[in-house]
Write a structure and sequence with these properties.
alpha/beta; Rossmann fold; 8-stranded mixed beta sheet; 10 helices; globular
Length: 313
């Protein structure tokens, strides 16, 4: 009985203490849809080496929009140099801080002397915009990218402000978005790398109605990557290098990636294509499996375009 009288107060004290402790918050899941609060992310406490977080006012949307920039280690030591740029687009539900692992892989390769110094820009493209402007004009991810961010980056950082030195890529929605932008504006890019990004016939009857783009036929046709491929075919054939990749265990994306691959073949557009056996919808695993060669496609594009490249010294 003495032991029981002693244990009861202790148990009460422990229970009271546990209740008084603030509950540990679970990591929040990305919101699936678009809203006005999605355009600037809270950056993590510690950003990867070389990466900084910024915002830029978007006149078209009347709001601040976030982006991250990776600057190579020699950027400050060589003020006479200009650098090629990779625009890396995040997937659905993400933001400008979602795929910074790419910068870490590049940075390690630069320090090891395997990769040349390159700038990488990580734009916030909204949660589910596909990097297109919405039909109602509320979200202007395409305008932000093409008319606002790219000119700002070229004016603010020591980029080589030329299509030949500008690469675009992305995973999932970012792959779809980078393909959309490269097909619509091939004069702005030298290379495209679609990583597991669906490529849809946006204006096809089976894709209608389109809740985001609206039902204007002209708008739908203007945002259809297959129609833009046909429209800009000669320029794309001559000037834009393209690479597509997807995992074989990613059925929701593999079908349309294969379809676009077939469309490029049918149009006579030379491109690189590979599938990763057994890989699901996971960008980090895709990169880890080919970490040493991950940037080779863009690098080969830059070399073929005659872009000067500098190793870290």
């Amino acid at each position: 009985m003495i032991r029981l009288r002693f244990l009861l107060p202790v148990a009460f004290l422990l229970a009271h203490t546990a209740l008084a402790q603030p509950a540990k918050s679970k990591p929040s899941r990305p919101k699936p849809g678009n809203d006005d609060a999605m355009w600037v992310a809270q950056p993590p406490y510690e950003l990867p080496a070389g990466v900084s977080h910024h915002t830029l006012h978007s006149p078209s949307m009347g709001r601040e929009v976030g982006f991250c920039v990776y600057l190579p280690p020699g950027y400050d030591r060589h003020p006479e140099r200009r650098y090629p740029v990779i625009y890396h687009l995040h997937g659905a539900g993400g933001n400008e801080t979602r795929t910074l692992f790419t910068a870490t892989v590049l940075h390690e390769g630069i320090l090891a002397g395997r990769l040349p110094e390159i700038i990488v820009v990580f734009p916030n493209g909204g949660r589910a915009t596909m990097y297109q402007d919405s039909g109602d004009g509320r979200f202007r991810a395409e305008t932000w990218m093409i008319r606002e961010l790219i000119p700002y980056i070229d004016a603010t950082y020591r980029t080589i402000a030329d299509r030949k030195a500008r690469c675009i890529e992305g995973f999932s929605m970012g792959g779809r978005g980078s393909t959309h932008l490269a097909m619509k504006y091939p004069e702005l890019f030298g290379s495209l790398f679609n990583q597991s990004g669906n490529v849809y016939h946006v204006s096809a009857p089976e894709q209608l109605p389109n809740a985001y783009l609206g039902d204007d036929p002209d708008r739908l046709r203007a945002n259809d990557p297959y129609l833009n491929l046909a429209k800009n075919l000669e320029f794309i054939r001559a000037n834009l290098r393209i690479q597509l990749a997807c995992g074989t265990a990613d059925p929701d994306h593999l079908t349309t990636v294969r379809e676009f691959h077939a469309a490029l073949d049918a149009a006579g557009v030379k491109h690189d294509y590979f599938e990763v056996e057994g890989l699901g919808h996971n960008q980090k695993q895709m990169i880890e499996g080919r970490r040493a060669t991950w940037f080779d496609f863009h690098l080969e594009s830059l070399r073929r375009h005659g872009v000067p490249l500098h190793l870290h010294r």
